[in-house]
Each structure stands twice: as C-alpha cells, then as structure tokens.
Amino acid sequence: MNTTEHDPGEQNILNGSFLQGTGVAVLVGGKSSRMGTDKAALRFDDAPFYQILCERMNFFPERFLSVNSFQNYSYPGYTLIRDEYPDTGPMGGILSVLNHFHGRCLMVIACDMPFFSENEARRLLEQYHGEDALIPVADGRWQPLCALYSASVSSLFLENIRKGDYRLKNAVTGADFRTVEISGDHAGCYLNINTPDDLKMYCESRSGGKLG
Prior knowledge:
The chain has 212 residues and is of the alpha/beta class. Helices cover 26% and strands 23% of the residues. It has seven helices and eleven strands. The chain is globular.
C-alpha cells in the first residue's frame, strides 16, 4: 500500500485519450437508515442529489446508475444496473456495476456526496496508475465510496461477499491499493450527508442553496 499527497493546485485538464477506458457509477441503492428517507431523492437547489452528480460526471465515456431492486431512478446517458447481490451493502452495488464494465478504471460516487465536483474527479483520475483501488483520504478518513476501482477487484469482492464480510475497507486492504491524501479546501468535496441534521447544516453552508 502506498500513500500519495493530493496536489490541490494541479490544474491539468484531461484530454480524451486519458479518459479512454474510464467510467463512473453513481450509487443510489443504499438503505438510508439514518436519514429516514431515500437519500438519492433528497433535493438541493431543486434537483435530487443523484441528478446533481450524474450531470457533473457526464464527461466520463461510460456511465452507470446503481440502484436496488425497489428503485426506479434513471438519468439520460446512464446505464441502469440493479443490485445483483442484495443486502450486501455498497460492495454488492459496486460489484454489480463491475460485472458490466470492462474499462481500465471505474469512478464510484455515493449519492450522498452532492458537493463532489467534476474537477475533483479529474484530479483523482490523473493520479490513477493501474491499481486495483485508489482511495482518497479526507480529514483522516478513508473514502471508499468516492474512489477508483479496476475490474481486477471483482473476484476479491465476490469472495468477501460469499464469506459474509461486506466491509469495503476489508476487501480493499487485501488488494493492490493506494491511498491519496486530500488536503485543503478539496476535503469539502467528500462531505457526505447521513442525517437530517447533516442535510440542514451542509445546505445552509452553501450560499443561495435551497432545501427541498
């Protein structure tokens, strides 16, 4: 395992050849137990969280929307992938997408991270060098639900699911992974919203933001 310091000042713009073989999966199939309602449908500035992220990530050549068996979400240009491993948490959702993805790396983003930006996604892609997983670490916390994965982790994810171990960190640490430290203001891109209080606090911090 290696750790790389994130360079928030880097302004390189990825060209089309660099993006070749990349994809993105927006994960909306979580249980949202602490929020008490489906987080994907929460709104900020009159748009559901998942749509905000889908719009920002439209630059990826291959795009997926990961949903559970009960959800009916969709977004233009995104392939809908229903969870093939029910009740196994985010690992099952990611694996379900990887089963249909054959590129070199997949960007995974949980729908409860509405502040994650296109620029931050591009910076992470610039730092990917073929690992099984590239995991951001923001404010000392791993962010495996806003990370890059290659299809090579599929067998490890499946093995852990069969063992009943659904913790992403446990699977990732058994793979060829690398972490990247997120510093400065960019750590705010990784804020996730789990509770009604989180929702109120984060949205009130955005000038002009309107809850819905």
